[in-house]
Write a structure and sequence with these properties.
This protein is mostly helical. It contains 18 helices and 8 strands. This is Tyrosine-type recombinase/integrase.
Length: 488
């Protein structure tokens, strides 16, 4: 009789909302149970796919343990059979892939295995034994990859191949006295990440899409850019319940889909304004109070500009010019000139005071606008907590649907980029590039930028900065010359 292994959730009482994860080993129709040492919420356990959902605390650690326990149990079952040479690498890799819970990871591992099988077909093989994988085989396979795909893809496929061998060694299935990867140096591909230039960003947001779905993608891109370069995978799954208000400040809090890192990003008025179209999908009058106050703010900015223009055009005559008039003309002309200059000076002072007052009012009003719009978003959080902000995934959030949503998003960005005649490729990740690049150029605190991006280490941020090189960065040489000219 065959032996089967499965992770199950066991509750003490039927009404319990929590249960313990155990490995059920069934042999000759008799089950035995081995505790994993984890207690999880029943609602967070996916029995079919054998993993706990990301909402469960320590979900990554629990899922990793599940994979290890199942793989070890499977190995122990196989181990009891007579040890023979010729252990199949492909068959083992398939079993490893089967117990991976994350769909994205499973897909990348499967792609890597398929690429290796393509190489084996060239050598008229369907499989390869572990003991036949040596340094010569690895170098030959890597050479094949470099000839057929880009360096970055070749390195990725090789990493997946190494992952299977490391997994086999860690679980006692097969080990090597000398690593087959010993002495192998990967070829690095030096390429810069494209970043939208200032004028390209301006052109993109100055564009007015005719179709609503394109307009929503444009506004979503703007929010992602101002919300610390949020990834599209995080935005399409973002829900109204992810927004928070703390002491008059507004935040978006979510777990990154890529790393499961908890992010808490403070939102400015600029960021919140990009959410208005999504709020108006529910009710066109949802932000009427904001619109009214915003109109007043625009009128004040217009008046401020007029006052600044008028103040800049008032030129006061110097004392030396008046001395000239004393000797050149009559006293009455002198008094007339003095009176005119006095009125001009009074007007200039009045305008300066008016300008300073309007600037203070504008800053104060910005806080009011933030409060109005922020409170409206918190109302949406209370009314529609489980609704996604973008309607693309409102009816479901499966992995395939999320992938389709990302493709939908990028397709529309590319179309708008072409219609705006923007040379730099416009993709969802540009929101992240622009956010990081502008901060790097402005000399922002490196550690703070790293935290805002959600990077797990400063090394990743440094690697990111090295690649974010644009033509604008070359202008620093000229800037240095201008600085030195002033100081020497």
């Amino acid at each position: 009789m065959s032996t089967t292994h499965k992770i199950v959730l066991i509750k003490k009482y039927a009404k319990d909302k929590e249960g313990y994860l155990k490995l059920r080993t069934t042999k000759d129709r008799k089950p035995t149970y081995t505790p994993l040492g984890f207690k999880v919420q029943v609602s967070n356990w996916n029995a079919d796919k054998q993993y706990v959902k990301s909402k469960e605390p320590n979900s990554d650690r629990i899922n990793e343990k599940i994979q290890e326990v199942k793989a070890e149990a499977q190995y122990n079952t196989v181990k009891k059979k007579k040890e023979v040479k010729g252990k199949s690498f492909v068959r083992y890799a398939k079993k490893v892939i089967q117990v991976i819970s994350q769909e994205g990871t499973k897909r990348s591992r499967n792609n890597g295995l398929n690429k290796l099988r393509d190489f084996l077909k060239i050598k008229d093989k369907d499989d390869i034994a572990f003991e036949d994988i040596d340094t010569f085989f690895v170098k030959e396979y890597y050479g094949y990859l470099l000839e057929n795909v880009a360096n970055s893809s070749a390195n990725e496929y090789l990493t997946v191949f190494k992952y299977f061998l490391t997994h086999a060694d860690a679980h006692g299935y097969h080990s090597y006295t000398i690593s087959p990867f010993r002495g192998l140096k990967k070829k690095k591909e030096k390429r810069s990440l494209p970043v939208l230039k200032y004028y390209e960003v301006e052109k993109f947001f100055g564009y007015k899409p005719e179709k609503e779905d394109f307009y929503l993608v444009q506004q979503a891109f703007g929010f992602m850019m101002y919300a610390s370069g949020m990834r599209v995978s995080d935005f399409v799954t973002l829900k109204w319940k992810n927004f928070k208000e703390i002491n008059g400040n507004y935040y978006v809090e979510f777990n990154m889909n890529k790393t499961k890192t908890l992010m808490k990003t403070k939102l400015t008025l600029d960021a919140l304004q990009f959410l208005i179209p999504f709020m108006e999908l529910y009710d066109k009058s949802a932000v009427n109070s904001f619109r009214i106050f915003e109109k007043k703010q625009k009128n004040m900015r217009k008046k401020l500009k007029e006052a600044i223009d008028e103040e800049s055009q008032i030129e006061l005559r110097s004392f030396s010019e008046f001395k000239y008039d004393i000797f050149a003309d009559l006293m009455d002309k002198w008094h007339t000139l003095v009176e005119q200059e006095s009125k001009k000076e009074e007007r200039k002072i009045t305008l300066q005071q008016l300008i300073e007052g309007m600037k203070r009012d504008l800053i104060f009003n910005e806080d009011i606008l933030l409060s109005i719009l922020g409170n409206q978003i918190i109302e949406f959080k209370d009314k529609y907590p489980e609704d996604t902000v973008h309607p693309m995934l409102r009816d479901g959030q499966s992995y395939s649907e999320a992938q389709n949503a990302k493709q939908h998003f990028n397709y529309r960005l590319r179309i708008m980029g072409k219609e705006c005649d923007i040379k730099t490729p416009v993709t969802n990740h540009q929101a992240r590039h622009v956010f990081a690049q502008r901060l790097f150029e402005a000399g922002a605190n490196f550690h703070h930028v790293s935290l805002a991006l959600g990077h797990s280490s400063l090394e990743i941020t440094e690697h990111y900065r090295e690649k974010l090189v644009t033509d604008d960065a070359m202008d620093v040489v000229e800037e240095f010359s201008r600085i030195m000219t002033k100081t020497i």
